[in-house]
């Protein structure tokens, strides 16, 4: 199988600071859901930021569709088809829901198509249609996350990276977030998700990656990762889960 | 009754001019987090462009307005490229910009004083000393024209921000810089253009001010205080807030001036600033600071 995205031994950090990622690797297959797990401070968020160009990669390489992304700006990587939803969701609190969706298509070359695409997303996510004129900052956490995720679909990207989309949401809402992720995956979008709850994340994924201290510890089919003894002990509390 | 109407009308006309003076300042603060203490000195620059245009060539200041705007916008581009673009990478950016813009204000003031002396000036097209009478209400034409042109420019700015693609980019950058970048906005370009527009508006305001107030190079310090109070009152970076604050306070100041004398009129702005900072530090339209 050919990889859509290949991250190989990358080293990256903030400013002149120490390397946070110290040889992180990951293979991303088209159309699959990939879950990254690891303890706090492992560098999960840093990995996503490095992929989308917000942090320069100091060594190693990131190849997307066989092409190196080295030295590209975030807007150029976005153009290539990689979207990133950071933990803080990156919404514009004083713009309406619809304006936020329009911002999602800011980088579209053909702006004449924008309104139609926004309409499509509104049809697909009725809550966004209902709230279209409401300021994004006044919505509930779950609704904001829905907006942030749905907004990426305006660009019809190849890959969407989600950093802890379930953070701070009630359990019932968390399920909704994963449902939306499924919807996105069903339209052919490849997903890269960071999830604090390893069990939940891996159960909803096809592929798993364990990151610790800026290195990839273990990578494989989500089920294998779930079953792996090392992982069981380290991150899943040592209890066998069937 | 006629007195009251007259005070309100004069207050509104002046409010429009202050609103224009403040909106450029607010735009620049919103996008770039620069507290531009040099903004009023650049307004002064615009005033001199209009003044000399009229003195030397008899150009109506309303015609000189776009010229002043363009000259000042170009100055803005220069300042941004030479100073702020680089400075934006520094960790102490916000503190630095206060000192930097203070220095720029001093340099502009010094330059203007050297070139044009400290003589008090005022541009005097015919309408500046003319007035309309509606019944017994007396409305100076100069203030009325300045107020209406200001209103038109502010409306144009608002429409641009609300509906144009670049306006979306500016608003997005103001609200969440990192998110704007993630949407593919070139935030450095947004900074440059916003700065140029903001300083260009200072130039336009200067052309209007030149026939509404008499001015001399160091007078910008007086405006610094008034404009800062407007921007803080409006909620730092909210253009709408700045505009509303300008209108409300100008009308209030006109009443204070009428009842207590002109000296007290200016104090209205500072007093309001004082009260708002005590009662509602985030300003009229500002967000509560994050508690996190
Ligand atoms: N903006 C930053 N500047 C400097 N260091 C940072 C920055 N953001 C994160 N770090 C450091 O990088 C390391 C990894 O952080 P990162 O956010 O990638 O971890 P994470 O795996 O996402 O953790 P969490 O589960 O808490 O989200 C941490 O030691 C953190 O202190
Ligand atoms: Mg993180």
Provide a brief overview of the structure:
The complex is a heterodimer of chains A (242) and B (292). By secondary structure, chain A is an alpha/beta fold.
Overview of this structure, please?
- The complex is a heterodimer of chains A (242) and B (292).
- Chain A is α/β, with parallel strands linked by helices and 242 residues long.
- Chain A has 2 domains: 1-81 and 157-242, P-loop containing nucleotide triphosphate hydrolases (Rossmann fold, 3-Layer(aba) Sandwich); 89-156, no CATH class.
- Chain A contains 10 helices and 10 strands.
- In chain A, helix 3 (97-104) runs parallel beside helix 6 and helix 6 runs parallel beside helix 7 (171-186).
- The two termini of chain A are 28 Å apart.
- The mean pLDDT of chain A is 93.
- With 292 residues, chain B is mainly alpha-helical.
- Chain B has a domain at 17-216.
- Chain B has helices spanning 2-32, 39-57, 61-87, 93-116, 141-163, 165-175, 177-182, 187-212, 220-234, 239-260, 262-279, and strands spanning 131-134, 137-140.
- In chain B, strands 1-2 form a two-stranded antiparallel sheet.
- The longest helix of chain B is centred in the first third of the chain and has 31 residues, at 2-32.
- The mean pLDDT of chain B is 92.
- The chains are: A alpha/beta (242), B mainly alpha (292).
- Residues 14, 17, 20, 38, 40-46, 196 of chain A line the site of adenosine-5'-triphosphate.
Based on the structure, what is the oligomeric state of the protein chains?
heterodimer
**What count of domains describes the coordinates of chain A?**
2
Overall pLDDT level of chain B: 92
Q: In percent, how helical is the residue content of chain A?
A: 25-40%
CATH topology heading of the largest domain in chain A: Rossmann fold
CATH superfamily of the largest domain in chain A: P-loop containing nucleotide triphosphate hydrolases
- Characterize the overall form of chain B: globular
Beta percentage of chain B is: under 5%
Provide the low-confidence segments of chain B as ranges. Answer: none
From the N-terminal CA to the C-terminal CA of chain B, the straight-line distance is 51 Å
What structural category characterises the helix and strand content of chain B? mainly alpha
Strand order in space, largest sheet of chain A: 6-7-8-3-9-10
User: Number of DSSP strands of chain A?
Assistant: 10
How would the global form of chain A be characterised? globular
Q: Give me the strand/helix succession of chain A.
A: EEEHEEHEHHHHEHEHEEHH
Determine the mean pLDDT of chain A. 93
Can you summarize the main beta sheet of chain A?
A: 6 strands, mixed
Bound molecules: adenosine-5'-triphosphate, magnesium ion
Please indicate the percent range of residues of chain A in DSSP E strands (runs of 2 or more).
Answer: 25-35%
Shape-level CATH architecture of the largest domain in chain A: 3-Layer(aba) Sandwich
Pfam families (chain A): ABC_tran
Protein name (chain A): High-affinity branched-chain amino acid transport ATP-binding protein LivF
GO molecular function (chain A): ATP binding; ATP hydrolysis activity; branched-chain amino acid transmembrane transporter activity
Organism (chain A): Roseisalinus antarcticus
């Amino acid at each position: 199988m050919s990889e859509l995205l290949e991250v190989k031994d990358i080293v990256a950090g903030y400013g002149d600071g120490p390397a946070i990622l110290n040889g992180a690797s990951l293979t991303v297959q088209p159309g699959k859901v990939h879950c990254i797990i690891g303890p706090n401070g492992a560098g999960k968020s840093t990995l996503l930021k490095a992929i989308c160009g917000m942090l320069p990669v100091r060594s190693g390489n990131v190849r997307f569709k066989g092409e190196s992304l080295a030295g590209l700006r975030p807007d150029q990587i976005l153009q290539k088809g990689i979207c990133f939803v950071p933990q803080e969701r990156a919404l514009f609190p004083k713009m309406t829901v619809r304006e936020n969706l329009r911002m999602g298509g800011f980088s579209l070359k053909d702006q004449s198509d924008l309104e139609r695409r926004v309409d499509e997303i509104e049809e697909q996510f009725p809550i966004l249609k209902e709230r279209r004129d409401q300021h994004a900052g006044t919505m509930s956490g779950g609704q904001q996350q829905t907006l942030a995720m749905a907004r990426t679909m305006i660009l019809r990207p190849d890959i969407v990276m989600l950093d802890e989309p379930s953070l701070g949401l009630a359990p019932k809402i968390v399920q909704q977030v994963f449902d939306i992720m499924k919807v996105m995956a069903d339209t052919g979008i490849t997903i890269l998700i960071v999830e604090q709850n390893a069990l939940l994340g891996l159960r909803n994924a096809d592929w798993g990656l364990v990151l610790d201290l800026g290195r990839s510890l273990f990578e494989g089919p989500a089920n294998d990762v779930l079953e792996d003894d090392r992982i069981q002990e380290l991150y899943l509390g040592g209890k066998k889960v069937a | 009754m006629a007195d009251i109407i007259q005070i309100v009308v004069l207050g509104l006309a002046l409010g429009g001019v202050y609103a224009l003076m403040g909106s450029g300042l607010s735009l620049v603060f919103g996008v770039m987090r620069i507290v531009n203490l040099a903004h009023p000195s650049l307004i002064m620059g615009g005033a001199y462009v209009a003044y000399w245009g009229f003195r030397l060539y008899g150009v109506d200041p309303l015609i000189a307005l776009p010229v002043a705007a363009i000259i000042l916008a170009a100055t803005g581009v220069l300042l941004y490229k030479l100073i702020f673009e680089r400075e934006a990478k520094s960790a102490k950016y916000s503190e630095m910009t206060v000192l930097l813009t203070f220095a720029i204000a001093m340099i502009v003031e010094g330059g203007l004083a050297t070139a044009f002396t400290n003589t008090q000036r005022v541009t005097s097209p015919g309408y500046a000393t003319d007035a309309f009478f509606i019944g017994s209400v007396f409305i100076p034409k100069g203030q009325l024209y300045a107020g209406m042109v200001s209103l038109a420019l502010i409306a144009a700015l608002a429409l641009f921000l609300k509906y144009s693609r670049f306006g979306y980019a500016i608003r997005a950058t103001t609200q969440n810089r990192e998110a704007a970048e993630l949407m593919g906005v070139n935030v450095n370009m947004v900074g440059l253009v916003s700065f140029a527009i903001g300083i260009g508006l200072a130039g336009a305001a200067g052309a209007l001010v030149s026939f509404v107030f008499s001015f001399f190079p160091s007078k910008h310090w007086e405006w610094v205080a008034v404009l800062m109070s407007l921007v803080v009152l409006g909620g730092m970076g909210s253009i709408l807030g700045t505009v509303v604050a300008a209108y409300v306070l100008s009308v209030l100041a006109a009443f204070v001036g009428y009842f207590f004398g002109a000296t007290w009129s200016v104090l209205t702005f500072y007093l309001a600033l004082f009260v708002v900072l005590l009662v509602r530090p985030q300003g009229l339209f500002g967000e509560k600071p994050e508690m996190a």
